[in-house]
Amino acid sequence: MVDIVDREKPKIRLPALIIQRVTAGLYYDHVGGDSKIWREIGSRFESYCIELISKALPGTQPSGSFKYKFRRAIDSPDIFLRDESGAAKLAIECKAKKRSIIAKFSEKPLDDAREAFSEIIKGVVQIWRFHSHCRRSSEIKVIAHDAAGIVLTLDPWLRISNHLDRLMQEAHALAGRIDPDIIDEDRKPILFCSIQDLESTLAIASEASFF
């Protein structure tokens, strides 16, 4: 006689799957959309980040991007945080693209997900270019002497840090191609941070400890 064990079947957490589908899952419905959709996604991400930092660290006086003229009209980085003197201490460039399956699992993501990683590289160069323009034109913005930059992403693109050296090499090369006058002084330290990590940091940080 064989005893039959009544094993409980694993329960499917349907409510969690539904929530995932109608929130983060919607992104993939629109990821192939036109530039208008991408601008909307980017704009909402920037607005959320400014509101989040404003609530957590009001003393940093967060402000958004602006247009300035340096030979032509140019957009500044997306968010600025200030120190006690009022000078810009951090320039933040927001990148709202989520990682593709290729970017998540490829052994060579910088090659196989080239288009996606190019946005991260451009974010670095945009920050350096802005600092260069400020150095060459004192009318744009007052920058703290020890200022830095953050590329703030919707997904944790660079948790596997062994790709970081190559990414920065490509950023330096691109900066040299687009403007030879971006000198070493302009190439401020860059931090790469996902919005999840920023949220965790802001939950425990003060203005002083954050900087």
What do these coordinates show?
The chain has helices at residues 14-22, 24-30, 35-56, 101-105, 109-112, 114-136, 164-178, 195-202, 207-210; strands at residues 63-64, 67-70, 72-75, 79-82, 88-95, 143-153, 190-194. The chain has 211 residues and is α/β, with parallel strands linked by helices. It has a five-stranded mixed β-sheet. Strands 2-3 form a two-stranded antiparallel sheet. The radius of gyration is 21 Å and the shape is globular. It starts with 13 loop residues before the first helix and ends with a helix.
Quick take:
The protein has helices spanning 14-22, 24-30, 35-56, 101-105, 109-112, 114-136, 164-178, 195-202, 207-210; strands spanning 63-64, 67-70, 72-75, 79-82, 88-95, 143-153, 190-194. With 211 residues, it is α/β, with parallel strands linked by helices.
